[in-house]
Amino acid sequence: MSGFHRFLRAITRHYRLPFGDAWFNDRIDRFFRNREPQWLLAPAAGAWPTMELDLTQKLQRKFFYFPKLHGWYYGRLPFRAFLTERLTPGSTFLDIGSNVGFFSLLAARLVGPTGRVYSFEPDPDTCEALRRSAQANGYTHLRTHQLALSDEVGELTFYRAKDGTANSLVPEAQGREARYERTLKTPVTTLDKLVADGTIDPRGIKAIKVDVEGAEPRTVAGMLEALRAADYPAIWCEVRGPRGSTRAPNTFVPVRDTLATIGYRPYIWKAGERRPVVDADVVKRTDVLFERD
After folding, report:
1. Between the CA of residue 280 and those of 172, 176, 274, 286, what are the distances in Å?
2. CA quadruple 134, 158, 251, 70: dihedral sign
3. Hey, CA dihedral for 285, 287, 289, 290, is it positive or negative?
4. Which of 124, 182, 186 shows the shortest CA–CA distance to 154?
5. pLDDT tens, 139-170?
6. CATH fold of 77-291
7. Positive or negative CA dihedral for 249, 251, 252, 254?
8. CB neighbours of residue 293 within 10 Å
9. Rounded to whole angstroms, how far apart are CA atoms 110 and 139?
């Protein structure tokens, strides 16, 4: 069976149009339901790195079959250019909400074996894919953590989306609960604690990405002491305005206000240039760079 999937991928991996992958994935989904994990190595294609993926997981299967399409999409995002500009050999990067790890794997290549990448992903299947992908690429300096970062230590409910793209610690609004296929419990901790107990060395941290599907205010609230210890690295954070989400609108203001207490200011970054952000700039989902001047 694995030979059939590799043969099919040899055709689909060349597809680069920004539509059609979801339709194809939905059509073949019935062949993978209720099956044991089926891990296959997917060699790099275009900007998409080598990954080991479980074809029974809908999101991972989409990346397996259409790497050039998704590499084209992620490769054009400003954050990829930002990482390429900011990360150097020996530096450290934190990927909070890493998913399968496109940016974690990119960062691991940029910082090299003398650097460190710490990736945090609560979904067990997705985190396992990143762990395997790091091993397949020989990135022993990429450390995966199957947990969520928040403002408390313990265990929280994790809501798993049907398509795997928007898993979150935040429940959906009433009437939209069908977005999630199931819930599970995930361990949570704070970045402050990980730094305080020596799990993460704050020295050398150059950038932190926070993309946790609406839970960003709590994640940021749990890292203020760690940011001080790391000498205030750059934070690239997905935030939302009043029309940015049904489950977590208006996350920009609490994230901004929390980080402002230690001197951070919000900016839009593009092609090496940044401009200050005002509330009116954040209506839907927006990636905001927080830095101290």
Report:
1. 25, 27, 16, 11
2. positive
3. positive
4. 186
5. 999 999 999 999 999 999 999 887 777 788 88
6. Rossmann fold (3.40.50)
7. positive
8. 6
9. 11
Mean pLDDT for the stretch of residues 255-268:
98
Copy the structure tokens of residue 46.
């275009």
Please give the radius of gyration of the chain, using alpha carbons only, rounded to the nearest integer.
19
Phi-psi region of 139 (alpha: psi -120 to 50; beta: other; left: phi over 0): beta
On whether the CB atoms of residues 36 and 59 are closer than 8 A, the answer is: no
- CA-closest candidate to residue 165, choices 73, 252, 81: 73
* Amino acid identity at 224: L
Residue 268 in tokens? 């839009």
Q: Where in the chain is the domain with CATH 3.40.50.150?
A: 77-291
Asked if residue 37 has pLDDT above 80, the reply is: yes
Q: β-pairing, 205-210 with 234-240?
A: parallel
Q: What angle do CA 180, 184, 189 make, to 5 degrees?
A: 115
Instruction: Tell me which H or E stretch contains 155.
Output: strand 154-161
pTM: 0.94
> What does the DSSP 8-state code read for residue 170?
S
| Single-letter amino acid code for the residue at 215 | A
CA–CA distance, 4 with 1 (Å, rounded to integer): 5
Encoded amino acid at 48, one letter: W
Instruction: Scan for tokens 């690429």, then name that residue.
Output: 137
- Write down how long the chain is: 293
